[in-house]
Design goal:
Strand content: 15-25%
Largest sheet: 8 strands, mixed, barrel
Mean pLDDT: 89
CATH superfamily of the largest domain: EAL domain
Strand order of the largest sheet: 5-6-8-9-10-11-12-13
Shape: globular
Distance between the termini: 58 Å
Number of strands: 13
CATH class of the largest domain: Alpha Beta
Amino acid sequence: GGDQFVVVLPDIHNRADAATVADKLLQDVRAVFHVQGMPLSLSPSIGISIFPEDGYGPEELLRRADAAMHLAKETGRGNRQFYLPGMDGRASDILQQEHLLRDAITQGAFVLHYQPQVNVSDGKLVGFEALVRWRHPQRGLVGPNEFIGIAESRGLITPIGRWVMFEACQQMKAWHDEGLPQVPVAVNLSALEFRQRDVAAEIAAVLQQTGLPARFLEIEITESVLMHHADQVSETLHALQALGVGVSIDDFGTGYSSLAYLKRYPINKLKIDRSFVMDTPGSDDDVAIVTAIIQMAHSLQLQTVAEGVETHEQMALLRGLGCNLAQGFGISHPMDARQTRAWIRDSAI
């Protein structure tokens, strides 16, 4: 493809030499550059094969370097990987998954499940998180963790993300029109989607097409989104705020963002990652972390959402700490639209 390049190093003596050159390439290519005043950076992925350990001919060496490069993409981009035995088969599997994913986009083989969010103080429904599933032809219903990475690395995340946004807004509008509780829906946006798309303009168009008022849509982003392209992030988040769309930081506490970002950007909610909630109230360390996040959020006038709530004891702890909202298997598993509608009606009884 036009974004792939080959570097041949005839004078290296060992793998360490190849690693040194690759690291220098990563450093140089990742350096920030400016286009019309806009700061941009790339996330290169490098695969390395070594003669003669990994092959004798150019085709074999290129094929194995390509397999290693795909692993580099899968493991977060912006890194290098050496070829290892067995990667050829892995690359073939990835290619097969890519073909299936392209077919899924064409055939509309995705479905949304909805997980309720409730008020910790009284258990009342306050919103939903929309979670995409893929009706895989061999494996059945597959969660996003198993295909979003491939979708991002193959440039397929945009059509999937657009479908999720439209479907979630359309479904919420239909439930509101039916007389069901008028609560918002939260939609996840990956860092790649946030950088590559005119998010605010697309969301405004979807809201207009579906008729859903902006106050009933929330966008969930991870801390990593806030770490790069500060001007672009600020512009997009303020545009969303102007629309009336809420913004939540998902999996809070697992990333590396500066707390200054919470003050700088228009953010409404912090979602406490499930890894801090799952061992409460038994783990004193996790209770301390959850307590600190809730107190900090309240001091910044932000709401808190606890993820992964499964027990009454966890809910009682969160209530005592002043956590605002909660979601998790202890409240409800994610459900398809039909099941969600029934759950709403049963909860209202």
